[in-house]
Each structure stands twice: as C-alpha cells, then as structure tokens.
Amino acid sequence: MGEPKMCQIICKAKIDDKQAKELKEKIEDEYRVNMILDNLPLVVPLARQDRGATVYQAGYHVGVKGQYAGNNDKKSFIHNHLAFLVKYHKDETTDLSRIVGFEVKPFSINHQFEGPWNDKNTRLITCDPHASKLLVNSDTPQEVEAGKEIIFTYDVGFEESDIKWASRWDTYLLMIDDQIHWFSIVNSLMIVLFLSGMVAMIMLRTLYRDISRYNQLETEEETQEETGWKLVHGDVFRPPANSDLLCVCVGTGVQFFGMLLVTMIFAVLGFLSPSNRGGLMTAMLLTWVLMGLFAGYASSRLYKMLKGSEWKSITLRTAFLFPGIAFGIFFVLNALIWGEKSSGAVPFTTMFALVLLWFGISVPLVFVGSYLGFKQPAIEAPVKTNKIPRQVPEQAWYMNPAFTILIGGILPFGAVFIELFFILTSIWLHQFYYIFGFLFLVFIILIVTCAEITIVLCYFQLCSEDYLWWWRSFLTSGSSAIYLFLYAGFYFFTKLQITKVVSGMLYFGYMLLASFAFCVLTGTIGFYACFCFTRLIYSSVKID
Fold first, then answer.
1. How many CB atoms lie within 10 A of CB 198?
2. What does the angle CA 270 – CA 275 – CA 281 come to, to the nearest 5 degrees?
3. Which pLDDT belongs to residue 234?
4. What pLDDT digit, counting tens, does each position of 450-461 carry?
5. SS3 annotation, 325-354
6. Distance of alpha carbon 515 from alpha carbon 319, whole angstroms
7. Could you list the residue ranges that cross the membrane (predicted)?
8. CA neighbor of 366 nearest in space, from 311, 287, 295
C-alpha cells in the first residue's frame, strides 16, 4: 500500500496456435477482464465528449482490433501493459488510509529488452523505471500471432482523494440518465390517471345510477326486463372451468407479490447494497421461500370458495407447479452452460442447496398456509348461484375474449417498459442497477394499472351479459407478459451483439422464465381487483 511501482514484469509467454485463436476470438467479441481490489471493481475511466464528464467502464478489454498505418488489414492487439491507479482517502484522526478508487489504463506495447532474459530483473528498452521511461501510449502495439512472445507488465500509482470511504461506490452508480426515469414515471402516471378517471366514472356515475335504478321498487313489468350486469347475478359466482389451476396460479402470484414487495422495501431502505455481490438474488430466493405460507393460504381459501374439497392436491400443485417449471428451465440452461465449460455454470452443490430450500422450507410452509386457509370458513358469495347456467348471448367482435385480453395487457406493459430497459441493461450488459426508489414507484404504478384495466374490462364484459370473468380477469392483465417477451426479443436484436447459439438460448430461456413470472404476478393483481369489484357491486343491489 502506498508504494508506487513502474514497469513491473509479470512474465513472458509464448503463445501457440490454439491460444492465438482464442485470444483473437475474445478480442473480436470484446471480452473484458474484471478485477477486484478491496471489494471495489476495476474500472477504466472514459471521457464523454457530449457531457464533458468521465464515465466508468467496468473491466478492461482483452485487446483491440486495429490496423497499421498504410495497411488495411485488421489485426488483433493485446493489452499487455496495465497502468493501475489506486485512489485512497486519508483519515485525519488515525492517519490510516482507505482505498476509495481502483482504475486502470490498458496499453498494448511490443516490449523490447536488452541482454539475456532474466525474468523480473530483465532491463526493458520500451519501459524502463531506472531511466524514468514511462508508458503513455500504444504507438508500437503487441500483435497477437502464434509463435510470438508477449511480455506482460504493469504500473501501480497511488493518488490521494477527497472521496470518503462511505461514498466510494458513488462513481460506479453515477446516474447519467435520471431524466429518462422521471419521464418514465410521468408517462406511467398519465396512463394511471386516465384509467383512474375511467374507473371513477364507472364506479360513481354508471354503477350508482344502475344500483339506484335496480333498487327502486319497480313495477312488475319493469322487473321482467332487467338489463345489463344485474341479469347475470345468478351465474357470476359460478366456479369456472379448470378452477384448480386458477387457484394454483393465484397462490403463486401472491407468493411473487410478497417476494417483490419485501425485497423492494429492503432495497429502498438501503439494505441491499451493490457492493454485496449476489445480495439481491439471495434476498429474493429467501423471501420467495418464506412467502410459500401466503401462497398456500391464498390458493386454499379460493379453492374452498369454489367448492373444492381435495385441499392436499391443490397444496401439492401450488408447491410444485411454478418452482418445478422454473427449476426445469434453469437446470436445462445450466446444463448448456456446463457443456460450454463456462465458469458461469451454477455448481452442483448450489443446485442441491436450492432443492433443499424448496423441499425443506418452501413446501412445508405451503402446506401450513393451505391448512390454515382451509380451516377458515369459506368466502361467501354475495348472491346465490342458479342451478342451471344461463346462455351467454352472442358478443360483439370487440368483446371477444382474445381481443379484450390482448388489449388489456398493453397498458400495464406501457407503464413499466421504460424502466424495463434499464433492468435488462443491468442484467445483460453488466451495469449496476440500484435505483430501487424509481423501481418501487413503477411497481406501485404497475399494481394500480393492472387493477384498473381489469376492472374496466370486467365491467364492460358483465354489461354485455357475459359472466365468465374468472379466467378472463386473470389473463387480461397477465397478457402484458406477452408484450414483455416480445420486447425482450426486440432488445436482443437491437442492443445485444450475441452470435453464439447457446448464449441466445440462455437469453431467451431466462426471459421466458421472467415473462412467465410476470404473467402470474400481473394476472393475480388483476384477478383480485376484479374479485373485489364483482363482490362489491353484487352485494349492493337488492335481488329478489
């Protein structure tokens, strides 16, 4: 610490054909080398012309492509000299120093030496600490060629800095585009206001008028001609087809909702710092496992209302359906990475730990939740269900289920898609994502949008005497996941330069999993909004 070094020789390496080919591939694909010093990632400072500010790129590139003057052939040059700069902050009281910055400037230099090669004591002509000959440019770069020798060297410089230890992460998290986030929030709020206006209009004007009209003591003739949503009161709480699957989906959605809410609250309060690598993922997995309790409770309460009696089977399905699919996709993708001999593969022990968490904690908690939920009295429907189901009349083209479901997903997706860009960038382009305050706002906007669009479309559906709202309310807001996946595809082709098949499969595999989770989450929000809405309106009309 505090000892500057110049032109330190690490080694001399002779590269063979295979190594030369691999290095050229890595340079072509713009691979970066990452290092850590005192838990700080290594960065390369880059000046931005348009802002007059310095931005930091995590890690330095293995090398660069370029050509010699007067020659058009592209060659690969390796960065074989690193000039490190360690910034430190001196504590006035104790006279100790703490590291607050770790920067590097990489150079490519074709090193020459005089006399025989004597490992680290060799005198280099190109970079000599004794003659104070420092490296400041890459004018004579080191080409990557089979059979050539490459000498690797480094400098270390120390610089005192005013940055305090507590705020040393700020440069990494420097927010360049906060206007975009505010624009995103304003854009989403516009959608929410528009929808809230519609919901308020339906609730106050239309419903109030309907309810007061229905509740007036009508003459006998008027009673014969009931219209609109009151007509289907005898069928509106009839259990839907595949009601078991609906209960499982809703239970899983509640589990997701709890996980995201708890994780985000912790992140907003600053418990999940980006310096704690993998902290966010660990927090999400642990909260997911603990939220199994609520998943079991929600699915069994709904199941009992829909006249289900086999609570153990519904519990098993809630405990295994989504985690089973997720684990299956994850396992296949991991096998692909493993096949590529990548260090990014999840080790077998971690896989085993995940299975233990799932079977040892999550499944028992789902059972406890289910047991508690099933012991509760069943949720009573506000109106009685008729013995014989009504015929659903012919619907207008714009009330077709497929059409309304697809339309319903556009607005929730529209509310989050700008923030989605930043999330995708942080996951796939290795940038830090830490603006959880914005994310929390967007999450709340997403909840409101999903609830409101579902209520609006559910009301129109009931008015046209179609009482099959259960699945439709779930799928209306859940269909936003289709747009999420399509956007992920658009992002893949416009922003990522991925050419390898396995990398593409990884991307789409994980995005499919994320879209599936998003579908279950938004679907559950929409379903509960609609469920409360129908209970509210049918409990406020008198029915003979």
1. 15
2. 75
3. 84
4. 998 999 899 889
5. HHHHHHHHHHHHHHHCCCCCCCCHHHHHHH
6. 20
7. 182-204, 245-272, 278-298, 319-339, 351-374, 403-429, 435-462, 474-493, 505-538
8. 295
